[in-house]
């Protein structure tokens, strides 16, 4: 987190001076200098970084340069929309990717297996922004089934949710299938079948539990990414979430917003990685952590 704080602090300031965007064309150099001093941007970078870090550890990421409101307050307002979009995408991934990936491995070589593999390859090859525009054209412009932008009714979240979940479904499906294929040929799975255990128990209790380690690692990080939305998807559908807020902040060089978003996302990824490491010991008894 400390390294991330340094990187994001330096990069946002290398992008340019926000005062030049905020100041009206008729503003004099004295007015610009006064605004820069008011926002504390006239101080040396080490001083600015120390002020940022000392407040950040207390949960205060400063005020937005553009909106003049606390950065975390703006993020909390937008995160509800992002969570709604990401929740639908996660639901799509769970309902489709895991069962189809397992079934594709168990029924290897069947027409459904070939269809699932083709869908996975297509899903990872199609850019999200192109898929989003295609869905807007087909279901919004031509068929008039779903709204194409904004947030309001449950129908507004359908197209962006599908667009956001498409790539994740394809990736998790392929990983689930390959992990299951590695496990299905092991001796303990063959022994379980020789004992006469029901096929459902063999697949889900014995095979899938041992194939789940790479799936959980990839899936956990994927779910964090989905729950934090996508800048591309939210921009295409004008979805008022965290991704669109970041785009607006970058355009206006709103340092506090960009820094707060990056730090929050980094904390979520680090936390999820820790949870996944702990789950490893539960899923695989061979894994033990030293005291």
Can you tell me about this structure?
The protein is an all-alpha fold and 291 residues long. It has 2 domains: 2-54, no CATH class; 72-283, Orthogonal Bundle (MetI-like fold), CATH 1.10.3720. 74% of the residues lie in helices and 0% in strands. The chain has 13 helices and no strands. Helix 12 (242-251) runs antiparallel to helix 13. The radius of gyration is 24 Å and the shape is flat.
Q: Which key features would you list for this structure?
A:
291 residues, mainly alpha, MetI-like fold
CATH class assignment of the largest domain = Mainly Alpha
Per DSSP, the total helix count is 13
- How does the overall form come out from the CA principal axes? flat
What's the architecture of the largest domain in CATH terms?
Answer: Orthogonal Bundle
What is the averaged pLDDT score?
Answer: 84
Strand content: under 5%
CATH topology of the largest domain: MetI-like fold
User: How does the helix and strand content classify structurally?
Assistant: mainly alpha
Q: Provide the domain count.
A: 2
Please give the largest β-sheet.
none
Low-confidence stretches: none
SS elements, strand count: 0
Report the helical percentage.
Answer: over 70%
The CATH superfamily of the largest domain bears the name MetI-like
Order of secondary-structure elements: HHHHHHHHHHHHH
Radius of gyration: 24 Å
Q: Terminal Cα separation, in Å? A: 25 Å
């Amino acid at each position: 987190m400390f390294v991330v704080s340094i990187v994001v602090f330096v990069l946002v300031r290398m992008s340019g001076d926000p005062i030049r965007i905020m100041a009206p064309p008729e503003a004099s150099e004295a007015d610009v200098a006064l605004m820069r001093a008011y926002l504390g941007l006239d101080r040396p970078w080490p001083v600015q970084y120390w002020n940022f870090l000392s407040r950040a550890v207390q949960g205060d990421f400063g005020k937005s340069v553009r909106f003049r409101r606390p950065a975390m307050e703006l993020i909390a307002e937008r995160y509800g929309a992002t969570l709604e979009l990401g929740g639908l995408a996660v639901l799509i991934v769970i309902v489709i990717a895991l069962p189809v990936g397992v079934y594709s491995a168990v029924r290897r070589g069947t027409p459904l297996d070939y269809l699932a593999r083709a869908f996975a390859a297509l899903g990872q090859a199609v850019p999200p922004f192109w898929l989003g525009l295609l869905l807007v054209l087909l279901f919004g412009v031509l068929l008039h089934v779903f709204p194409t932008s904004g947030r309001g009714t449950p129908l507004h979240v359908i197209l962006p949710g599908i667009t956001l979940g498409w790539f994740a479904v394809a990736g998790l499906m392929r990983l689930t299938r390959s992990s299951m294929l590695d496990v299905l040929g092991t001796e303990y799975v063959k022994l379980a079948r020789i004992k006469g255990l029901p096929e459902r128990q063999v697949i889900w209790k014995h095979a899938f539990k041992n194939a789940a380690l790479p799936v959980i690692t990839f899936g956990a990080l994927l779910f964090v990414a989905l729950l934090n939305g996508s800048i591309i998807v939210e921009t295409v559908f004008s979805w008022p979430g965290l991704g669109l807020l970041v785009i607006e902040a970058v355009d206006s060089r709103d340092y506090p917003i960009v820094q707060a978003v990056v730090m929050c996302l980094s904390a979520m990824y680090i936390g999820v990685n820790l949870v996944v490491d702990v789950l490893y010991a539960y899923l695989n008894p061979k894994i033990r952590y030293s005291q």
